[in-house]
Amino acid sequence: MPVPFSYVSRLLGFALCLMAAGLAATPGLAGDAGAGREKAATCRTCHGIDGVARLPNAPHIAGESELYLIAQLRAFRSGERRSEIMAVIAQSLSDDDIADLAAWYSSIEFSVTLPD
After folding, report:
1. Angle in degrees, CA 54, 58, 59, rounded to 5
2. pTM given for the model
3. CATH code assigned at 46
């Protein structure tokens, strides 16, 4: 017997609400960009205070998703993601530090100009 469309749309809507609630409740998403800017002094050597990498082996992080930055910093801290430099740095970061840094770097806006 086919499932009525209204049932499927209600189920999908419910699932989306649960996902949104889960994201809103994720610890560390209420970072303070101003505090993150101050904490980014440690990051500026490689990533720059503006999030544009200064070293060829460091990624640009300006404008990255806050969720992505939080996930990556936590992965470095736990050892799930490996980098000699970031492992040392991330070990000293609290969840609040990570949230603040992610809020700062994700708040940076930039534009791209394509060549002719």
Report:
1. 100
2. 0.73
3. 1.10.760.10
